Amino acid sequence: MKLASICLAGLFVAASVCAAAEPAAAEKRTDEKDVEFRINGEAFGKKAIAAGLAECPSYNPDVCPTDMSAGWETRRARLIRYVPLRQFLDREGVAVSKKEIDEEIEIMKKDPNPFGKAPPKPISAVMVRDCITWSDLRLMLRVDLGMDKWAERQRKEKWPTEDSWKEYCRGEEKTFREQYGKFSRLSFSISRWPQGAKDEEDALRILKERADAAAKKLSSGEDFEKVAKDPAVAGEIAAAQILPLTAFGPDHTKALEKLAAGGTTDPMKTPFSWEIVRKERLAPEDLSEVLKLRFLVRTRVEAEKKVGSETKIEKVNWMGPDELRTLGSGM
What is the tens place of the pLDDT at every residue in 16-30? Predict the structure, then answer.
């Protein structure tokens, strides 16, 4: 097929590109005969999709499948998800500059786990595994940064002054304090496998002994941070976080509800750890921060659902599974 030779030739050429290099040229859409589908009237061509996919195997062609049956469908689905949101932001007049996107990419490159994956994976590994092209990453960041700006605009329209926002926070404070708390944690987890442990049950037994020893030190009046840093305790301290009271499981909710600011719990068992929790004082700025985050997330989710439900996909020269497999057979 002529299309197969065009697509595959582009992919083979790109496979020689250096793994660390981000393609400088933006992908171009082609003529009407090349259009595979339209998203709300905006056309996307086969050559453009193939050219974008060619950015992936430059990392590792054995890991990122570009046989069209996987890579093509992955990229097509990503465009169908993100392009309607980019169109929405364009209509709303929400701009995200190239500089903002470039700065975010540089931050992600330095972050050992920019996508929040478990286990942690750097940006290049996730882009290879998930067939994320540089063009797609820029689209994703344009949408992510833009939707944050749009949601913050909604918040300021609803509460136009700082006083009106503070009044809203005061109205939510009682309910918030009944459901959330600010906690520091001293964790004894099997993620740091104790020396000499035969199996998971034995590991948790050893960790329980360490947690009990730490709890004894705390009950005698020793400082939480000092105990956490004691090599003999060998625990991991987590910085204070605002969490729902149910975060450590239903068995521990009542203990956290009764805990006064500055107080610590007895060791609490979770599926893979023992935890000692200290309750911190909730400041007004903590309440404001969490309520703001909750509003922004909820507003974004609702908008994204609405945009998704209104999106129209027109299949022009849609590539079905059989044709995609045919294209990939030449690899």
Answer: 333 334 544 444 444
93 sits in the region (left: phi over 0; alpha: psi -120 to 50; else beta) called left
Query: Residue 285 corresponds to which amino acid?
Result: E
Residues in the chain: 331
Report the distance separating Cα 137 and Cα 71, nearest Å: 15
Full DSSP string of 252-305: GHHHHHHPPTT-BPPPEEETTEEEEEEEEP--HHHHHHHHHHHHHHHHHHHHHH
- Name the residue type at position 243: L
Domains of the chain by range and CATH? 2-156+304-328 (no CATH), 175-282 (3.10.50.40)
111-141 pLDDT tens trace? 888 887 766 788 888 887 787 888 899 999 9
State whether the Cα torsion 92-98-100-105 is positive or negative.
Answer: positive
What b/e string do you get for 185-199 counting C-beta neighbours within 10 Å, with b at 16 or more?
bbbbbbeeebeeeee
The mean pLDDT of the chain is 81
Residue 255 in contact with residue 301, Cβ under 8 Å? no
Is residue 86 scored above 80 in pLDDT?
A: yes
Strand order in the sheet with 236-244: 236-244, 180-189, 273-280, 268-270
CA dist 152 → 51, 141, 294, 299, 328 (Å): 35, 16, 11, 9, 44
How far, in whole angstroms, is CA 290 from its chain's centroid?
A: 18
Q: Which of 286, 299, 289 shows the shortest CA–CA distance to 155?
A: 299
Least confident of 1-15, 39-53, 54-68: 1-15
294's tokens: 């909750």
Cα 223-224-227 angle, rounded to 5 deg:
85
- DSSP for 57-120 reads TTT-TTTS--SSTTHHHHHHHHHHHHHHHHHHHHHHT----HHHHHHHHHHHHH-SSTT--SS-
